[in-house]
Amino acid sequence: MASCVSPEQTRGRISGEGTLPATGSRSGGPGENAESDFGSAMAILRGSYGPLAGFWTHVPVGIAVIFSAPPRHCYVRKLVRIAFQRTHGTTCASRRGSISRLISLSELTPSFPSLSGSLALKPLEESASNAPRKMEMAKVSFGDDAIPGYECGDKTLPGVIVLQEWWGVTENIKKQALYISSKGYRCLVPDLYKGKLGVTAEEAHHLMGNLDWPKAKGEICEAAKYLKATGAQKVGVVGFCMGGALTLIGAQHSDDMDCAAPFYGTPDRAICQPEKITKPVQGHFGADDNMAGFSDPTAAAQLAENLKAAGGDYEVFSYPGVGHAFMNDLPEPYPDFEARKASQGFPGYDEGQVTLAWQRLIAFFDKHLQ
User: Fold this and answer.
1) How far is Cα 77 from Cα 262, in angstroms, rounded to an integer?
2) Scanning 60, 124, 273, 359, which has its CA 20 to 30 A from the CA of 312?
3) Is 24 left (phi over 0), alpha (psi -120 to 50) or beta?
């Protein structure tokens, strides 16, 4: 890490950066009544730490205290504490106290990308896959059979059912539900495997193969009924992989669903005929998807033809350079994306394409559910 500058050097930068008075001493820094603001303090930090400029711009100020304010540099640390108090309405009285505070303030503990290479991190809000951590998924049960699931968001908001991949209800699926919920929706994730998870491709294939699809169809319809019966005025559905196929099944068979957004998955015609779906549909597929007959470019093109025949409002997008499961920013159950590619042939994570897909999806839900 870059070394801290002296209080005298810092004072010299204040006059040209902001309105913070250059008061205090080497041991005490600014007085308790110093009229600082977040922008001024961070401007000082950006100027003082040279190579870490991009890092300071995006890391929450509390984490900044931990990462680069050694105890002997009280002046800079005091600036940070004041900015922290003004920004978050609370104090971080000491270095150790800052750590404890950060643990309790869950919105300040996102999962940062690797710090190797450049330290210029992108703002978290630019990465749609980073769901706000201040929300949590609550376990729920719904329907006459007490179907298990996870829910988040105010009950009066429009509802969105988020359907799992063949792995089960993984952290990826929960993060995706949390992200959608952060945009003004109440999300429900039905647990169609009843707690089971596939930790290898073979196990996931087994779980998907053993899924009772007619029963799953009924549970998805129950999920939509539950959301509307408990406050949601409108309900949409989105699913990934196996969940993409189930999304189209739900759209055809549930009268309580208002729109559907399948990601890289199409259903067996024995249970779903997309040419009968007149509700708005927005499909998303990777141009390099290798799942023949399920989500490859041929399957995506066939879905578009069927939806066109239905005469409803539809879009089917193809994303160049990405393949199956391209929305997952976690490679689970694999240790990294290279291992996933070696096992399943899926290209790596492309944040640009993922962000574009999220923007389209949220705009679609805003149009048809809000």
Assistant:
1) 49
2) 359
3) left
DSSP 304-332: HHHHHHHTS-EEEEEETT--TTTT-SS-T
Cα–Cα distances (Å) from 175 to 7, 90, 237, in that order, read 42, 28, 16
Q: Read out DSSP for 267-311? A: --TTT--GGG--S-EEEEEETT---TTTTSHHHHHHHHHHHHHHT
Q: Which residues have CB under 8 Å from 57's CB, separation 6+? A: 42, 46, 123
DSSP state of 121: P
- Tens of pLDDT, residue by residue over 85-139, are 444 444 444 433 433 333 333 333 333 333 333 333 333 334 444 544 457 899 9
Residue partners of 71: CB distance under 8 A and separation at least 6: 77, 95
Taking the whole predicted model, whether its pTM rises above 0.90 is answered as no
Ramachandran area for residue 336 (φ above 0: left; ψ -120 to 50: alpha; else beta) = beta
Question: Tokens 């199409």 identify what position?
Answer: 266
Strands 259-263, 281-286: pairing kind: parallel
